[in-house]
Each structure stands twice: as structure tokens, then as C-alpha cells.
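Example for tutorial group B:
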């Protein structure tokens, strides 16, 4: 009861008499099982009593400092949510230069997102509705058949790509988007112009001609487009201009040719997509040319 009275007086922050201060001090020492002190209080005396006081002081200091720091640093629900970007209610995944990410949707579809690309998607597809994703950049899709969601649609800049169970590569780094079909079947239409629609067969590639608003259909290099998902490029008689185009997109570097003749050089090689310097070295040795890396530029001499 006496301790409760002392604590109440302390909380009220009243001016205490010397006698009251002495009683409070003696009660504190009594609770700590220490002998009553006389005169001035030594906060950290030696011996066993000093060890107890230092321990108590350290514990109090830890609580006073550690508690607010913990609540400031701990991963709250808000911070956890912020580790996954959202865009207009959609999940968003981004990659930087030289970076690839693999995303598995809840329907089993696997998407390999190439460097310098953005994928947006809703991971809770509604039953009976089309599965839709948005792509800026380049990605390889391995779409799983789903009886609850018949259609899978990739919105890639100016194109809507509708697929069934299939594997395809979509390049939407510019308005002149491209689609390469590895297996299955896809329908590609220009956004806002359903009359401009084409169907792709395996091994075919289409590119939108933004000037004529028509699709250009060619054969695709299947090995080239499948290999990058395994961290390598498989070149078969590809021109140096084509190869440096991939390097520009993947690593975000500028390519400068000092001669037009160099663009037409062709190469057969399997290059690991892991290190820009290694790729440049292989190209230099294979084609017997010199390529200079200058900050964010590749200068082909």
C-alpha cells in the first residue's frame, strides 16, 4: 500500500519533501533487496550491489530504446505489401538490365520475364473469365491449359495476343510489337482494330508494321527464343546487328557501329547471358573484330 502511494505521488510530479524522497529511495532499495542508502546515491557502486544496479539500468535502457526502434523497423503488414509492387490493383514485376525473373501464376502458367521488362497481372483469376496480363518488354510464356479459364490474353502495347495451352515469346519493347510461337496456336489482333487479326502456327513470327498497320509474317529461330529462358543465347548465322540488338535490350546499352560492313557479319555460337564482358570477348574472338565498352556504350570497330 505504501509503494502504491509513492508511485502515485511520483506520477503526479509533485514537489516532494526531503523526508518523502528518502522514504521512496529506501523503498526502492528494499525492493531490490539492497541495504538502505544514506547520503547521496551512487548509481553504479562496485561489488554485487553495483552489478545488480547496472543490470537493472541496462534492462531499462534496452526497453526504453529498443521498443520504439523495434516498432519502427519491424516488417509491418504495410511494409510487407510494399515489397510487391502494385499498379492499378495489379501485381507488378520489374526487371533491370541483365536481370531475369521467373513468375508462376496460380493457374500453373510460367512466365520468364526478360531484362528491362515489366509484367502486370491479377493472380486471382475469376472462374469463367479470361486470364489477362500486361507486358512491357520481353517475356516467354508457357501457358497451362485450364478448363476454368479457357483464354489467356497478353496485352502487349498495341497488340492483344490470345492463346490456349502453348509456348510463345512476346516482345513489346516498342509499338512494333512481335510475337513468336513455339508451340500451340495463338490469335494476334491490333488493339482497337479487330479487323487486323492473324493466327500463328508453331515456328512463325509476326511483327506489327506501325506505319502500314499490317502484320509482317516470317519464320522464327526457335532455338534463339527458347535458349534465353535458360540463361543463354543460341545464335545460328545471326548477323552482328541482330545480336547487338539483343544485347542492347538485355543490358540497356547503346550500340555504335563505326562501319556498316560490321553489321552484316554473321556468327554461330551459344553465349551465356551472364556477363556483358564475356559476351563481348566471345564475339571479338569469333569475328576477329574489336568492340570497346565505354560506360553505357558498345562501340563496334
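The residue assignment follows.
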Amino acid at each position: 500500500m505504501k509503494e502504491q502511494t509513492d508511485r502515485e505521488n511520483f506520477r503526479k510530479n509533485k514537489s516532494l519533501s526531503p523526508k518523502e524522497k528518502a522514504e521512496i529511495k529506501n523503498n526502492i532499495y528494499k525492493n531490490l533487496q539492497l541495504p538502505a542508502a544514506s547520503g547521496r546515491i551512487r548509481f553504479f557502486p562496485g561489488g554485487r550491489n553495483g552489478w545488480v544496479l547496472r543490470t537493472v539500468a541496462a534492462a531499462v535502457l534496452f526497453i526504453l530504446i529498443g521498443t520504439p526502434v523495434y516498432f519502427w523497423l519491424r516488417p509491418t503488414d504495410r511494409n510487407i505489401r510494399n515489397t510487391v509492387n502494385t499498379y492499378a490493383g495489379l501485381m507488378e514485376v520489374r526487371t533491370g538490365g541483365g536481370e531475369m525473373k521467373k513468375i508462376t501464376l496460380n493457374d500453373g502458367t510460367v512466365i520468364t520475364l526478360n531484362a528491362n521488362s515489366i509484367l502486370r497481372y491479377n493472380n486471382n483469376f475469376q472462374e469463367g473469365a479470361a486470364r489477362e496480363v500486361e507486358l512491357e518488354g520481353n517475356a516467354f510464356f508457357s501457358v497451362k491449359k485450364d478448363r476454368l479459364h479457357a483464354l489467356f490474353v497478353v496485352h502487349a502495347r498495341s497488340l492483344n495476343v490470345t492463346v490456349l495451352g502453348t509456348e510463345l515469346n512476346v516482345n513489346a519493347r516498342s509499338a512494333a510489337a512481335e510475337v513468336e510461337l513455339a508451340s500451340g496456336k495463338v490469335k494476334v489482333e491490333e488493339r482497337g482494330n479487330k479487323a487486323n487479326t492473324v493466327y500463328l502456327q508453331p515456328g512463325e513470327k509476326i511483327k506489327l508494321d506501325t506505319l502500314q498497320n499490317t502484320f509482317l509474317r516470317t519464320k522464327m529461330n526457335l532455338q534463339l527464343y527458347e535458349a534465353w529462358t535458360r540463361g543463354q543465347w543460341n545464335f545460328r548465322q545471326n548477323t552482328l546487328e541482330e545480336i547487338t540488338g539483343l544485347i542492347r535490350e538485355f543490358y540497356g546499352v547503346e550500340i555504335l557501329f563505326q562501319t556498316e560492313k560490321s553489321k552484316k557479319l554473321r556468327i554461330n555460337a551459344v553465349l551465356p547471358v551472364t556477363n556483358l564482358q564475356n559476351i563481348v570477348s566471345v564475339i571479338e574472338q569469333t569475328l576477329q573484330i574489336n568492340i570497346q565498352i565505354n560506360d553505357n556504350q558498345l562501340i563496334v570497330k
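Residues 24 and 120 are 65 Å apart (CA to CA). Compare this with the pattern of hydrophobic and polar residues in the output above.
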